[in-house]
Amino acid sequence: MNNQEKKDLMPVLFVSHGNPMASLNEKSEKEYGAWGASLPKAKAVLMFSAHWEAEGLIFGETKRHERLIYDFFGFPKKLYDIQYPAPAAKWLEDEVQNLLTDNISASERGLDHGVWIPLSKIWPNADVPILQISLPKNYSNQALFDLGQRLSPLRQQGVMIIGGGTLTHNLKEGLSGKYSETPEWVRNFDDWVAQVLRDDRTALLDWENTGPKALLNHPSPEHFRPLLIVAGAAMRNETPTFPLVGFDMALFSKRSVQFG
Q: Residue 132 and residue 233: Cα distance in Å, rounded?
């Protein structure tokens, strides 16, 4: 790939979607908004979210996203009033299917909060077309990495591949009220992920065994697994940047990742 082709590649992102209340937080809006303002305008987004796992691959709705999924409970009413009517990207289904041999089914599922919370802050004008696709829970770590590699040619077509999750996500501990400061076991895992992304992304393929306190940070793996797709979609010589860092509610990493 020559320098011009590299220049024309859309970035590939891992976005920390954060606490739903972040949607009502002015500081969070500014942080994500500044990141969004630095990104090139995408023709479309192909989005994988930790909050939509399925057996295999399934396309989400392919019409304007006027039917969000508020997949959380116990929050203020104004959070459930948020709308994000971004355009759909139905044409992207064919482009994805052309790159994959996998059988991909279709659904009318709307965008879940792992999508609309971060994207509504990154692109508040809801003007970037989105196609969500399920996170296949029956795929191994290697298969998810390979999926990212197979989808990477979309980057040359103006498509931004995005994974949404959280790099540390022990919900039970996070809601326990025991932590006023981020503990070492959370910081160490967050630091390890950043170092591996810089040095050797293939180390992520055995993250459960090699990451420090990996299973304590992720009692279930769904919030980490979108990163494997993102890492696969990045070029081998691309260096990651971390547009957002820090922790929310002490235990949840805000670290987000950009390649390109």
A: 16
Residue with tokens 């972040």: 22
d(CA 95, CA 207): 31
3-state helix, strand, coil in the chain (%, to 5): 40, 20, 40
For the record, the structure tokens of 213 come out as: 């306190």
Contact criterion met (CB below 8 Å) for 57 and 133: yes
The separation between CA 58 and the C-alpha centre of its own chain, rounded to angstroms, equals 17
CB 131 within 8 A of CB 89: yes
Per-residue DSSP letter, 241: E
Q: Which residues contact 75 (CB under 8 A, 6 or more apart)?
A: 20, 21
Which residues form the domain of 202? 3-259
CATH number of residue 188's parent domain: 3.40.830.10
Domain count, the chain: 1
Rounded to two decimals, what is the model's pTM? 0.95
CB 251 within 8 A of CB 181: no
pLDDT tens digits in sequence order for the chain, 260 residues long? 555 455 689 999 999 987 787 667 788 889 999 999 999 999 999 999 999 999 999 999 999 999 999 988 778 888 899 999 999 999 999 999 999 988 899 999 999 999 999 999 999 999 999 999 999 999 999 999 999 999 999 999 999 999 999 999 999 998 888 999 999 999 999 999 999 999 999 999 999 999 999 999 999 999 999 999 999 999 999 999 999 999 999 999 999 999 99
